[in-house]
Amino acid sequence: MKKKIICLVMAGMLTLSLVACGGKGGASDDGGKQESGDASANVANKDKPLVWFNRQPSNSSTGELDMTALSFNDDTYYVGFDANQGAELQGEMVKEYIEANIDKMDRNGDGVIGYVLAIGDIGHNDSIARTRGIRKALGTGVEKDGGINSDPVGTNTDGASNMVKDGNIEANGKTYVVRELASQEMKNSAGATWDAATAGNAIGTWSSSFGDAIDVVISNNDGMGMSMFNAWSKDNKVPTFGYDANNDAVAAIAEGYGGTISQHADVQAYLTLRVLRNALDGVDIDTGIGTKDEAGNVLGEDVYVYKADERSYYALNVAVTAENYQDFLDSTKVYGPVSAKLDEDKHAEKKVWLDIYNASDNFLSSTYQPLLQNYDDLLNLDVDYIGGDGQTESNITNRLGNPGQYDAFAINMVKTDNAASYTSLLSQ
Ligand code: BGC
User: Fold this and answer.
1) In which domain, by residue range, is 141 found?
2) Which of 18, 27, 49, 420 places its Cα 20 to 30 Å from the Cα of 147?
3) Residue 70 within a domain
4) How many A from CA of 53 to the centre of ligand 1?
5) Taking CB atoms and a 6 Å cutoff, what residues make up the pocket around ligand 1?
6) Which numbered atom of ligand 1 lies nearest the CA of 220?
7) Atom number of ligand 1 nearest to Cα 127
8) What is the pTM of this model?
9) Are residues 68 and 109 in the same domain?
10) 330 in any annotated domain
11) Which run of H or E residues covers position 201?
12) 225 and 283 fall within a common domain
Protein backbone atom coordinates (compact mmCIF):
# COMPACT_ATOMS: atom_id res chain seq x y z
CA MET A 1 0.00 0.00 0.00
CA LYS A 2 2.52 2.52 1.23
CA LYS A 3 4.74 1.72 -1.69
CA LYS A 4 1.99 2.45 -4.17
CA ILE A 5 1.38 5.86 -2.62
CA ILE A 6 5.07 6.68 -2.75
CA CYS A 7 5.15 5.58 -6.37
CA LEU A 8 2.20 7.80 -7.27
CA VAL A 9 3.86 10.78 -5.64
CA MET A 10 7.13 10.05 -7.36
CA ALA A 11 5.45 9.54 -10.69
CA GLY A 12 3.76 12.90 -10.29
CA MET A 13 6.98 14.60 -9.38
CA LEU A 14 8.99 13.05 -12.14
CA THR A 15 6.36 13.69 -14.82
CA LEU A 16 8.28 11.16 -16.89
CA SER A 17 6.56 8.30 -15.13
CA LEU A 18 9.14 5.70 -15.80
CA VAL A 19 9.24 4.33 -12.30
CA ALA A 20 8.01 0.77 -12.29
CA CYS A 21 5.86 -0.04 -9.30
CA GLY A 22 4.66 -3.49 -10.22
CA GLY A 23 6.08 -6.12 -7.86
CA LYS A 24 4.76 -6.26 -4.36
CA GLY A 25 7.39 -6.46 -1.69
CA GLY A 26 10.33 -6.09 -4.07
CA ALA A 27 12.87 -3.51 -3.07
CA SER A 28 14.39 -2.96 -6.47
CA ASP A 29 11.42 -1.71 -8.42
CA ASP A 30 13.51 -0.71 -11.34
CA GLY A 31 12.08 -2.70 -14.20
CA GLY A 32 15.04 -5.01 -13.88
CA LYS A 33 17.70 -2.46 -14.75
CA GLN A 34 19.00 -1.73 -11.33
CA GLU A 35 22.29 -3.30 -10.33
CA SER A 36 22.02 -5.65 -7.42
CA GLY A 37 23.39 -4.34 -4.15
CA ASP A 38 21.40 -1.14 -4.00
CA ALA A 39 17.93 -2.32 -3.24
CA SER A 40 15.78 0.77 -3.28
CA ALA A 41 14.59 2.41 -0.14
CA ASN A 42 11.01 2.25 -1.42
CA VAL A 43 10.16 -0.82 0.60
CA ALA A 44 10.67 -0.85 4.35
CA ASN A 45 12.64 -3.85 5.56
CA LYS A 46 9.68 -4.95 7.63
CA ASP A 47 7.59 -5.31 4.46
CA LYS A 48 10.11 -7.36 2.49
CA PRO A 49 9.48 -11.06 1.80
CA LEU A 50 10.80 -13.32 4.55
CA VAL A 51 11.09 -17.09 4.62
CA TRP A 52 12.06 -19.15 7.64
CA PHE A 53 13.46 -22.54 6.74
CA ASN A 54 14.64 -25.76 8.42
CA ARG A 55 14.04 -24.42 11.94
CA GLN A 56 10.45 -23.45 12.41
CA PRO A 57 9.82 -20.52 14.71
CA SER A 58 8.45 -22.32 17.77
CA ASN A 59 8.78 -22.73 21.50
CA SER A 60 11.65 -25.14 22.07
CA SER A 61 10.05 -26.58 25.21
CA THR A 62 6.47 -27.06 24.05
CA GLY A 63 6.86 -27.09 20.26
CA GLU A 64 4.10 -24.47 19.96
CA LEU A 65 4.44 -22.48 16.73
CA ASP A 66 5.48 -18.85 16.98
CA MET A 67 2.70 -17.38 14.85
CA THR A 68 3.96 -13.83 15.43
CA ALA A 69 7.16 -14.71 13.57
CA LEU A 70 5.36 -16.85 11.01
CA SER A 71 3.07 -13.96 10.10
CA PHE A 72 5.63 -11.17 10.48
CA ASN A 73 4.29 -9.59 7.29
CA ASP A 74 2.02 -10.67 4.41
CA ASP A 75 4.96 -12.26 2.61
CA THR A 76 6.28 -14.42 5.44
CA TYR A 77 6.37 -18.23 5.21
CA TYR A 78 8.12 -21.26 6.65
CA VAL A 79 9.56 -24.05 4.53
CA GLY A 80 10.43 -27.39 6.09
CA PHE A 81 9.15 -30.90 5.82
CA ASP A 82 6.52 -33.03 7.52
CA ALA A 83 8.42 -34.00 10.66
CA ASN A 84 5.83 -36.46 11.96
CA GLN A 85 5.33 -38.31 8.69
CA GLY A 86 9.12 -38.62 8.31
CA ALA A 87 9.62 -39.71 11.88
CA GLU A 88 7.03 -42.47 11.55
CA LEU A 89 8.70 -43.62 8.36
CA GLN A 90 12.09 -43.76 10.06
CA GLY A 91 10.65 -45.81 12.93
CA GLU A 92 8.91 -48.23 10.56
CA MET A 93 12.06 -48.56 8.44
CA VAL A 94 14.09 -49.63 11.49
CA LYS A 95 11.39 -52.01 12.69
CA GLU A 96 11.02 -53.65 9.28
CA TYR A 97 14.78 -54.06 9.02
CA ILE A 98 14.91 -55.81 12.41
CA GLU A 99 12.04 -58.13 11.48
CA ALA A 100 13.49 -58.99 8.09
CA ASN A 101 16.97 -59.70 9.47
CA ILE A 102 16.05 -61.14 12.84
CA ASP A 103 18.29 -64.19 12.46
CA LYS A 104 21.40 -62.07 12.55
CA MET A 105 20.23 -59.19 14.74
CA ASP A 106 20.74 -60.41 18.28
CA ARG A 107 24.53 -60.34 18.45
CA ASN A 108 24.97 -61.71 21.97
CA GLY A 109 21.98 -64.03 21.78
CA ASP A 110 20.35 -62.69 24.95
CA GLY A 111 16.92 -62.29 23.38
CA VAL A 112 17.16 -58.50 23.68
CA ILE A 113 17.56 -56.30 20.60
CA GLY A 114 19.47 -53.37 22.05
CA TYR A 115 19.73 -50.01 20.33
CA VAL A 116 21.48 -46.74 21.06
CA LEU A 117 20.06 -43.41 19.91
CA ALA A 118 21.82 -40.18 18.99
CA ILE A 119 19.53 -37.20 19.62
CA GLY A 120 20.15 -33.99 17.64
CA ASP A 121 18.69 -31.13 19.65
CA ILE A 122 16.18 -31.68 22.46
CA GLY A 123 14.50 -28.35 21.62
CA HIS A 124 14.13 -28.88 17.83
CA ASN A 125 10.77 -30.15 16.56
CA ASP A 126 12.39 -32.42 13.92
CA SER A 127 14.62 -34.04 16.50
CA ILE A 128 11.77 -34.51 18.98
CA ALA A 129 9.55 -36.06 16.30
CA ARG A 130 12.28 -38.51 15.23
CA THR A 131 12.99 -39.69 18.77
CA ARG A 132 9.26 -40.22 19.26
CA GLY A 133 8.91 -42.00 15.89
CA ILE A 134 11.59 -44.52 16.81
CA ARG A 135 10.18 -45.15 20.28
CA LYS A 136 6.67 -45.49 18.89
CA ALA A 137 7.58 -48.02 16.20
CA LEU A 138 9.80 -50.08 18.49
CA GLY A 139 7.33 -49.98 21.38
CA THR A 140 9.79 -48.28 23.72
CA GLY A 141 7.93 -44.99 24.19
CA VAL A 142 6.19 -43.91 27.38
CA GLU A 143 3.71 -41.08 27.57
CA LYS A 144 4.55 -37.67 28.92
CA ASP A 145 2.32 -34.58 28.67
CA GLY A 146 0.05 -36.19 26.08
CA GLY A 147 2.83 -37.34 23.72
CA ILE A 148 5.69 -39.82 23.71
CA ASN A 149 8.52 -38.74 26.01
CA SER A 150 11.43 -37.56 23.82
CA ASP A 151 13.99 -36.96 26.59
CA PRO A 152 17.41 -38.61 26.38
CA VAL A 153 17.61 -41.51 28.85
CA GLY A 154 21.35 -41.46 29.46
CA THR A 155 22.04 -45.15 30.14
CA ASN A 156 19.37 -47.85 30.42
CA THR A 157 21.14 -51.19 30.02
CA ASP A 158 19.06 -52.76 32.78
CA GLY A 159 15.78 -51.54 31.30
CA ALA A 160 14.89 -49.70 34.50
CA SER A 161 14.48 -46.17 33.08
CA ASN A 162 11.08 -44.59 33.47
CA MET A 163 11.57 -42.40 30.39
CA VAL A 164 11.36 -45.42 28.08
CA LYS A 165 10.12 -48.97 28.46
CA ASP A 166 11.07 -52.28 26.92
CA GLY A 167 9.22 -53.08 23.71
CA ASN A 168 8.63 -56.38 21.94
CA ILE A 169 9.11 -57.61 18.41
CA GLU A 170 7.72 -60.90 17.18
CA ALA A 171 9.71 -62.50 14.42
CA ASN A 172 10.20 -66.08 13.25
CA GLY A 173 7.80 -67.29 15.91
CA LYS A 174 9.87 -65.81 18.72
CA THR A 175 9.34 -62.73 20.87
CA TYR A 176 12.33 -60.46 21.35
CA VAL A 177 12.62 -57.64 23.83
CA VAL A 178 13.63 -54.29 22.30
CA ARG A 179 15.55 -51.99 24.63
CA GLU A 180 16.89 -48.46 24.30
CA LEU A 181 20.26 -49.09 25.93
CA ALA A 182 21.33 -45.43 25.83
CA SER A 183 20.49 -42.10 24.26
CA GLN A 184 22.06 -38.69 24.50
CA GLU A 185 21.73 -35.21 23.00
CA MET A 186 24.77 -34.69 20.78
CA LYS A 187 25.72 -31.19 21.86
CA ASN A 188 29.36 -30.14 22.07
CA SER A 189 30.91 -28.14 24.87
CA ALA A 190 30.57 -24.91 22.87
CA GLY A 191 26.84 -25.52 22.51
CA ALA A 192 26.55 -26.77 18.90
CA THR A 193 23.74 -29.31 18.54
CA TRP A 194 23.38 -32.24 16.09
CA ASP A 195 27.12 -32.50 16.58
CA ALA A 196 28.63 -35.33 14.54
CA ALA A 197 31.94 -35.41 16.40
CA THR A 198 30.14 -35.76 19.73
CA ALA A 199 28.20 -38.72 18.33
CA GLY A 200 31.45 -40.33 17.13
CA ASN A 201 32.81 -40.08 20.68
CA ALA A 202 29.58 -41.34 22.21
CA ILE A 203 29.57 -44.54 20.18
CA GLY A 204 33.14 -45.13 21.38
CA THR A 205 31.99 -44.90 25.00
CA TRP A 206 28.80 -46.89 24.43
CA SER A 207 30.52 -49.69 22.53
CA SER A 208 33.24 -50.10 25.10
CA SER A 209 30.65 -50.24 27.90
CA PHE A 210 27.89 -52.32 26.26
CA GLY A 211 29.84 -54.19 23.55
CA ASP A 212 27.77 -56.72 21.68
CA ALA A 213 24.59 -55.80 23.52
CA ILE A 214 24.31 -53.08 20.85
CA ASP A 215 22.44 -54.56 17.89
CA VAL A 216 21.25 -51.39 16.17
CA VAL A 217 22.52 -47.79 16.03
CA ILE A 218 19.94 -45.08 15.38
CA SER A 219 20.45 -41.38 14.83
CA ASN A 220 18.24 -38.34 14.42
CA ASN A 221 20.31 -37.44 11.34
CA ASP A 222 22.93 -38.77 8.94
CA GLY A 223 25.66 -36.38 10.08
CA MET A 224 25.74 -38.07 13.48
CA GLY A 225 24.78 -41.46 12.03
CA MET A 226 27.70 -41.51 9.61
CA SER A 227 30.07 -40.40 12.33
CA MET A 228 29.02 -43.42 14.41
CA PHE A 229 29.07 -45.71 11.39
CA ASN A 230 32.61 -44.71 10.45
CA ALA A 231 33.86 -44.81 14.03
CA TRP A 232 32.40 -48.18 14.94
CA SER A 233 29.37 -49.79 13.35
CA LYS A 234 30.75 -50.34 9.87
CA ASP A 235 33.62 -52.49 11.17
CA ASN A 236 31.37 -54.25 13.63
CA LYS A 237 28.64 -54.81 11.05
CA VAL A 238 25.96 -53.17 13.16
CA PRO A 239 23.15 -51.63 11.09
CA THR A 240 23.00 -47.86 11.53
CA PHE A 241 20.10 -45.63 10.58
CA GLY A 242 19.99 -41.90 9.97
CA TYR A 243 17.90 -39.21 8.37
CA ASP A 244 18.45 -36.71 5.51
CA ALA A 245 19.77 -38.91 2.68
CA ASN A 246 23.03 -36.99 2.46
CA ASN A 247 25.26 -38.28 -0.36
CA ASP A 248 27.75 -40.05 1.91
CA ALA A 249 25.00 -41.81 3.84
CA VAL A 250 23.20 -43.02 0.74
CA ALA A 251 26.49 -44.32 -0.69
CA ALA A 252 27.20 -46.09 2.63
CA ILE A 253 24.05 -48.21 2.25
CA ALA A 254 26.15 -50.35 -0.10
CA GLU A 255 28.53 -50.90 2.83
CA GLY A 256 25.98 -51.79 5.47
CA TYR A 257 24.44 -48.46 6.57
CA GLY A 258 20.88 -49.57 7.34
CA GLY A 259 18.93 -46.75 5.74
CA THR A 260 17.99 -43.10 5.85
CA ILE A 261 15.05 -40.83 5.07
CA SER A 262 14.99 -38.27 2.30
CA GLN A 263 13.23 -35.16 3.54
CA HIS A 264 13.00 -34.06 -0.11
CA ALA A 265 15.56 -31.31 0.32
CA ASP A 266 15.35 -30.76 -3.45
CA VAL A 267 11.74 -29.68 -3.01
CA GLN A 268 12.42 -27.68 0.17
CA ALA A 269 15.30 -25.70 -1.31
CA TYR A 270 13.12 -24.84 -4.30
CA LEU A 271 10.22 -23.74 -2.09
CA THR A 272 12.54 -21.66 0.09
CA LEU A 273 13.56 -19.48 -2.82
CA ARG A 274 10.37 -19.79 -4.84
CA VAL A 275 8.13 -18.19 -2.21
CA LEU A 276 10.52 -15.21 -2.14
CA ARG A 277 10.56 -15.01 -5.96
CA ASN A 278 6.77 -15.03 -6.11
CA ALA A 279 6.40 -12.39 -3.42
CA LEU A 280 8.99 -10.19 -5.17
CA ASP A 281 7.19 -10.64 -8.49
CA GLY A 282 3.86 -9.77 -6.87
CA VAL A 283 2.23 -12.91 -8.27
CA ASP A 284 0.07 -15.51 -6.59
CA ILE A 285 2.18 -17.37 -4.03
CA ASP A 286 1.16 -20.71 -5.58
CA THR A 287 2.87 -19.88 -8.90
CA GLY A 288 5.33 -22.61 -9.88
CA ILE A 289 4.28 -24.51 -6.75
CA GLY A 290 0.75 -25.91 -7.05
CA THR A 291 0.09 -23.93 -10.23
CA LYS A 292 2.32 -24.32 -13.28
CA ASP A 293 4.36 -21.19 -14.08
CA GLU A 294 5.11 -19.97 -17.62
CA ALA A 295 8.33 -22.02 -17.70
CA GLY A 296 6.43 -25.19 -16.81
CA ASN A 297 7.57 -25.55 -13.18
CA VAL A 298 5.06 -27.20 -10.88
CA LEU A 299 5.12 -29.51 -7.84
CA GLY A 300 2.79 -32.47 -7.42
CA GLU A 301 0.75 -33.07 -4.29
CA ASP A 302 2.84 -36.16 -3.62
CA VAL A 303 5.87 -34.07 -2.63
CA TYR A 304 4.57 -31.27 -0.40
CA VAL A 305 1.67 -29.91 1.60
CA TYR A 306 0.85 -26.28 2.42
CA LYS A 307 -0.87 -25.45 5.69
CA ALA A 308 -2.29 -21.97 5.37
CA ASP A 309 -3.07 -21.61 9.09
CA GLU A 310 0.61 -22.29 9.88
CA ARG A 311 1.86 -20.30 6.86
CA SER A 312 4.08 -23.30 6.26
CA TYR A 313 5.12 -25.49 3.36
CA TYR A 314 6.11 -29.03 4.29
CA ALA A 315 7.92 -31.40 1.92
CA LEU A 316 7.06 -35.08 2.25
CA ASN A 317 9.61 -37.76 3.14
CA VAL A 318 10.68 -40.98 1.44
CA ALA A 319 12.52 -43.95 3.00
CA VAL A 320 15.87 -44.76 1.37
CA THR A 321 17.00 -48.36 1.87
CA ALA A 322 19.02 -51.06 0.14
CA GLU A 323 16.06 -51.47 -2.21
CA ASN A 324 15.97 -48.00 -3.73
CA TYR A 325 19.17 -46.14 -2.73
CA GLN A 326 20.49 -46.13 -6.30
CA ASP A 327 17.86 -43.47 -7.10
CA PHE A 328 19.13 -41.15 -4.34
CA LEU A 329 22.87 -41.11 -4.92
CA ASP A 330 23.00 -37.40 -5.81
CA SER A 331 21.27 -35.38 -3.11
CA THR A 332 22.21 -32.05 -4.68
CA LYS A 333 20.38 -32.55 -7.96
CA VAL A 334 17.46 -30.17 -8.58
CA TYR A 335 14.03 -31.75 -8.71
CA GLY A 336 13.11 -32.34 -12.37
CA PRO A 337 9.56 -30.91 -12.37
CA VAL A 338 10.85 -27.53 -11.07
CA SER A 339 14.11 -27.23 -12.96
CA ALA A 340 13.18 -24.77 -15.73
CA LYS A 341 14.92 -21.38 -15.60
CA LEU A 342 12.75 -18.28 -15.34
CA ASP A 343 13.01 -15.63 -18.04
CA GLU A 344 15.39 -12.91 -16.86
CA ASP A 345 13.48 -10.16 -18.63
CA LYS A 346 10.31 -10.94 -16.73
CA HIS A 347 11.94 -11.90 -13.44
CA ALA A 348 14.69 -9.39 -12.88
CA GLU A 349 17.51 -10.32 -10.56
CA LYS A 350 16.83 -9.62 -6.88
CA LYS A 351 19.13 -9.72 -3.93
CA VAL A 352 18.52 -12.14 -1.07
CA TRP A 353 20.20 -12.46 2.33
CA LEU A 354 20.23 -16.09 3.51
CA ASP A 355 21.90 -17.73 6.47
CA ILE A 356 22.71 -21.32 7.39
CA TYR A 357 22.67 -21.60 11.20
CA ASN A 358 25.78 -23.77 11.31
CA ALA A 359 28.26 -23.86 8.46
CA SER A 360 29.40 -27.29 9.63
CA ASP A 361 25.98 -28.93 9.79
CA ASN A 362 26.32 -31.90 7.40
CA PHE A 363 22.81 -31.80 6.00
CA LEU A 364 22.61 -28.06 5.50
CA SER A 365 26.10 -27.66 4.07
CA SER A 366 26.37 -30.80 1.97
CA THR A 367 22.79 -31.11 0.73
CA TYR A 368 20.62 -28.03 1.32
CA GLN A 369 23.01 -25.21 0.42
CA PRO A 370 24.27 -26.80 -2.83
CA LEU A 371 20.63 -27.22 -3.84
CA LEU A 372 19.85 -23.59 -3.01
CA GLN A 373 22.83 -22.58 -5.12
CA ASN A 374 21.44 -24.53 -8.05
CA TYR A 375 18.00 -22.99 -7.71
CA ASP A 376 19.13 -19.40 -7.20
CA ASP A 377 20.38 -19.34 -10.81
CA LEU A 378 17.14 -20.79 -12.12
CA LEU A 379 15.08 -18.24 -10.20
CA ASN A 380 17.37 -15.26 -10.98
CA LEU A 381 18.13 -14.56 -7.35
CA ASP A 382 21.47 -13.21 -6.25
CA VAL A 383 21.85 -14.81 -2.83
CA ASP A 384 24.42 -13.91 -0.18
CA TYR A 385 25.01 -17.07 1.86
CA ILE A 386 26.00 -16.48 5.48
CA GLY A 387 27.31 -19.42 7.52
CA GLY A 388 26.80 -19.32 11.29
CA ASP A 389 28.75 -21.09 14.02
CA GLY A 390 25.74 -23.09 15.22
CA GLN A 391 26.09 -21.67 18.72
CA THR A 392 24.98 -18.09 18.96
CA GLU A 393 22.38 -16.13 17.09
CA SER A 394 24.50 -12.96 17.29
CA ASN A 395 27.23 -14.57 15.19
CA ILE A 396 24.68 -14.45 12.36
CA THR A 397 22.62 -11.37 13.17
CA ASN A 398 25.85 -9.33 13.37
CA ARG A 399 26.13 -9.97 9.67
CA LEU A 400 22.71 -8.56 8.91
CA GLY A 401 24.03 -5.06 9.46
CA ASN A 402 22.43 -3.51 6.43
CA PRO A 403 19.13 -5.17 5.56
CA GLY A 404 18.32 -2.23 3.29
CA GLN A 405 20.74 -3.71 0.73
CA TYR A 406 18.50 -6.73 0.21
CA ASP A 407 15.15 -7.40 -1.40
CA ALA A 408 14.26 -10.45 0.68
CA PHE A 409 15.47 -12.63 3.55
CA ALA A 410 15.75 -16.38 4.18
CA ILE A 411 16.49 -17.30 7.78
CA ASN A 412 17.71 -20.49 9.46
CA MET A 413 17.86 -19.84 13.21
CA VAL A 414 20.24 -21.35 15.72
CA LYS A 415 17.40 -21.81 18.16
CA THR A 416 13.76 -22.00 17.20
CA ASP A 417 12.74 -19.54 19.95
CA ASN A 418 14.89 -16.77 18.58
CA ALA A 419 12.89 -15.35 15.66
CA ALA A 420 12.68 -11.94 17.31
CA SER A 421 16.46 -11.54 17.12
CA TYR A 422 15.98 -11.28 13.36
CA THR A 423 12.62 -9.58 13.04
CA SER A 424 13.72 -6.83 15.43
CA LEU A 425 16.51 -5.99 12.97
CA LEU A 426 14.02 -5.82 10.13
CA SER A 427 11.62 -3.64 12.10
CA GLN A 428 14.05 -0.86 12.91
C1 BGC B 1 18.15 -32.12 9.68
C2 BGC B 1 19.39 -32.23 10.46
C3 BGC B 1 19.96 -30.88 10.68
C4 BGC B 1 18.94 -30.00 11.32
C5 BGC B 1 19.44 -28.60 11.45
C6 BGC B 1 17.20 -31.23 10.40
O7 BGC B 1 16.02 -31.11 9.66
O8 BGC B 1 17.57 -33.37 9.49
O9 BGC B 1 20.31 -33.01 9.79
O10 BGC B 1 21.10 -30.98 11.47
O11 BGC B 1 17.78 -29.99 10.56
O12 BGC B 1 18.48 -27.72 11.88
Assistant:
1) 102-238
2) 420
3) yes
4) 11
5) 54-55, 120, 126, 194, 221, 223, 243-244, 361, 363-364
6) 8
7) 6
8) 0.88
9) no
10) yes
11) helix 196-210
12) no
